[in-house]
Every structure is written in structure tokens, then in C-alpha cells.
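agent> Task received from the user: take the single chain below, predict its 3D structure, and emit C-alpha cells. No templates, no multimer pairing.
agent> Plan: (1) validate residues, (2) run structure prediction, (3) serialize to C-alpha cells, (4) report one or two observations.
agent> Step 1 OK, no nonstandard residues flagged.
tool_call: predict_structure(input=
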Amino acid sequence: MKRILLLAALCCTLPLSAQWQRQATPADTLRSTVVLPDGDVIFQFYAPKARTVSVAGDLPWGNPVVFREAPNGVWKGRCKGLGDGVFRYHFVVDGVSVQDPKSPQAGETSALLTVGDGYVRDVPHGAVAQRWYYSRTLKCMRRMHVWTPAGYENSKQKLPVLYLIHGGGDNDASWPTVGAAGWILDNLLAEGKMVPMIVVMPNGTVTDVPNEVPPFAEDMFTDIIPFVESNYRVIAKSESRAVAGLSMGGMETMEVIFSKPDMFRYAWVLSSSFQPGQDPAAEAARLHVADNLALINKAYKAFVFTQGGPSDIAYQNCINTRNALQQIGLKFDYMENAQAGHSWTTWRADLECLAPKLFR
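)
tool_result: status=success, residues=360
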């Protein structure tokens, strides 16, 4: 049976950059929890057809949060008396428990369904670690996931690094879970198909900003890469760095590459383009692609665009971006590795296909 891994979510409220073509709703910019200066918390949930909405979890007993619906379909309730700390919560919509789809950890609370053999095999397995760092760029604590290959703990070898970015609506836990990145890399390494490397999966989602792509790129240069190179045995040279991203992460990949092309020698743009709705030629000019053309064309060992076939929602946008870059003279490869549209089936296939070609 063909291997399929599905992510089930009760409510889908991805930002526009993740969905490319979709009718806007109040959920797009909704903050599900807002902590007020007095310590009270406002809970918000978009459910225009619901009859009742409430919140449950580690909340004060005997003091229920009363929700009222606004004309735009957003239900709002105010919780008093929580105090400082960490609290579990979930919404209850018409009597059904619903995990918060707007939480940064929403994808981590979704169910995973494996159909077929899956990716976990009897091979030596590496480790996937959660690492926290302070982002000077974003002025807050941020998290990344880092995969290290089997045997890394007992080795003194320095390794190259792939920075692998998720898409809009997800976070740094997406590649290690529904993306099956650790298991795919374990298998490739055990089969001798790829060189040992470290794979860093940062959080590409930056909240409370109109465009998260440039701030994330600055976080990469100022905080993420220095953290990795200070805490792991890596080869801190451009020829030993690769960056890849899907959908919104592909936009961030291009922002990173074109901002400082001398930092990397490999780039993958998976099911992505310049920002939808923007003129690709203008975006290329903003990022000074023409100025860096000679360096990228000469030094990069791989610059790859991929798509999931014509059903990929980024298909036409990617064509427009590639055409604009070709007119400037940028050299790159293009492939449709899986005809699975804008989906994790496509991006897992991309990882399986492209990882063996790195750092050769």
C-alpha cells in the first residue's frame, strides 16, 4: 500500500500566504487569546454557525467564562483570576471539544494518521530535539527543532547543515511530525543515500506583523544560524549550508538567499513563489537579484524550484516567479517530483529526492 501520512485538524484557519487563493474571514487575523494589562485573558473563537461556545481546561473553578457572539461570527469571553503560569485549555463548540486552531501549537495537537507502512523502519535513528533561543530580532524566546543523525553524540565530526522551513499556518514541529523529516533522513542515511548532516527546522511563523517573511530572514541571520553554529559541531562555511522551505517557507527561503547569497550554496523553493499579489519583477528588484546574479549562478551547487503538479495552488504563482527570474538570467532547476498538489505528500517526496544531492 502506498505510504500516506495525513494531518487531521478540526478547524483550518491558515493565513492568506499559506492558502494563496481563498476568501478572507475574520479568522485570518484573529488572536484566540489576548492577555490584558490587568492579567485578564480574552478568549476568541470564530464560529459563525455555532449556537454555543465556551472554554474549558485549567481555568478557575466556579467562575465560568461567558462568551458572546459578535456580528462577524467571532465569539468572545473574558477570563479573570488566572495569575501567572502555564494553562491548558480548549474550546467547546456546540458541546464538542475543539483544540484552538489559532494557537501556535495547533498542528502539534492534531491527530496523525498513517496509511500503509509509514516511514518508521528498523534502522539506526537520529534524535530530534526542541531547542529554545532568545531572538534579538523579534525580542522574544523562540523554538526550533533540530535533527542530528544516529551516532552524532559519540562523534567528533563536524557536519554540514540544512535549514528546513515549514509553510504558513504551521510551526517548527510540522516537519518532524506530519513532514516525517527525521524518519525520512534516518532511512536515507541508513541506506547510504545521503551524507551525514544536521537538519534545523526553525519556526517560520512570526505573529503580530503584517508580513512575516523579512523579519524571519533577519532572525535567521542574527539569531538562528549563530545559535546553531555555537551549539552544534557544524562546518560554518557557505558550502556547508543549505536552506529550503515550502509555501510560505519558500518565500522565506528566497528572502534569505537573495538577501545574503554568500551564506549558502544550496536552495530549494518548494511549492512557492514571491509573495502572491506582488509583481515578481518588483520583488526581484527589491531583493537585488540582478546584483547577486554572478555569485549565485557561479557558486550555487543547486537552486531548485519544485511543484506538486498543476493542482498545486502555488502553480501559476511559481511560473510567474520563475519567468521573472529567468528574464534576469538566474540559473535554477525545476521539477515536479510528486503530482500531489500543495500537500505534505509532495514535500515529503521532495525531501526524499533532494536530500541525497546535498553536500556532495
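agent> Step 4: summary for the user.
The helical segments are 16-19, 181-190, 213-231, 248-259, 280-286, 293-299, 315-328, 344-354.
agent> Done.
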